[in-house]
Design goal:
about 280 residues
């Protein structure tokens, strides 16, 4: 039995880092000082998860779309919009087209209304680049683009981002439930290993191309096994403070000879102390 484990997405900041970001927002400390403090905290995160798959903790991302939107020609930031049914908000991307990168994502650089780049602090062999899935990016934005064209153009930009960081592994995060028109076409993205984190209704998703893994609820495994190298289970909760039952998790993953264990959404909605406990649970399961 082979159990792979993944921690991904925006991770809760320490109180110390939150205070430093507040100081930066008020102009008390410069961009370079904030960037150093963010990097220091990222290295501590990396050290905790270095033995499993992980993404950058994205301490310099205000939401999952904003820094990506700000480095692509043809996308501007719209008004603050509620993020699904949560008490958090994101700046809705307003998309006239997707033309190319207008900023190098791998360099230290100031950008408006967001802590400075780079997008990620790449570290270690188990690193995966975090990116919002094209389906959710499209449907959570304001655009008149055709989705098929959007999917193709966005993935072309994503390939340039990954190549800038010399990364072949990526996590695509899907916060939306799928509807009848859902599809993702990875036919031209075959050189990258993609783990897709889904939120539900996977039977509605049409997939073109092959993925490394697709993380689903246990009840949806049958819908995805033909489209990935091994199934994923997103059975650790990232959206409530209850600590999951490690025995139940072990019983569930024991049903598979090769499986990925991960959480159902990123953990920035949780207090840091709870998120740390859930990561330790994933490490121990």
């Amino acid at each position: 039995m082979s159990v792979k484990k993944l921690v991904y997405g925006i991770y809760p900041k320490s109180n110390e880092l939150r205070l430093e970001i507040g100081r930066w927002e008020r102009g008390i400390i410069p961009d370079s000082v904030l960037s150093e403090k963010i990097d220091d905290e990222k290295y501590r995160f990396y050290d905790a998860v270095k033995d499993i798959y992980y993404t950058d903790p994205l301490y310099n991302w205000y939401d999952i779309f904003r820094p990506i939107s700000m480095i692509i020609n043809g996308i501007t930031l719209g008004p603050l919009t509620r993020f699904l049914e949560t008490n958090t908000f994101y700046r809705i991307p307003e998309i006239s087209g997707i033309n190319d990168l207008n900023i190098d994502p791998d360099k230290f650089q100031k950008i408006d209304e967001n802590p400075p780049l780079p997008l990620y602090l790449k570290y270690g062999n188990n690193f995966y680049a975090f990116l919002p899935s094209p389906y959710s990016f499209y449907h959570m934005s304001k655009t008149s683009m055709d989705y098929t064209d959007f999917n193709k153009r966005l993935l072309n930009v994503y390939s340039k981002i990954l190549d800038k960081f010399s990364v072949k592994n990526a996590v695509f995060f899907e916060p939306l439930y799928y509807k009848n028109d859902a599809f993702i076409d990875l036919s031209d993205f075959a050189k990258y290993n993609v783990i897709l984190i889904t939120s539900g209704n996977t039977s509605k998703l049409e997939i073109k191309g092959h993925l490394e893994s697709i993380a689903v609820k246990p009840s949806e495994i049958d819908y995805i096994v033909d489209y990935c190298s091994y199934p994923g289970l997103n059975i650790v909760s990232g959206d409530n403070t209850k600590i999951d039952d490690v025995k139940k998790i072990r019983d569930e993953i024991s049903k598979y000879s090769d499986v990925l264990l991960t959480h159902n959404t990123y953990m920035d909605f949780l207090p840091r102390i709870i998120a740390d406990k859930k990561v330790n649970l994933i490490l121990e399961a």
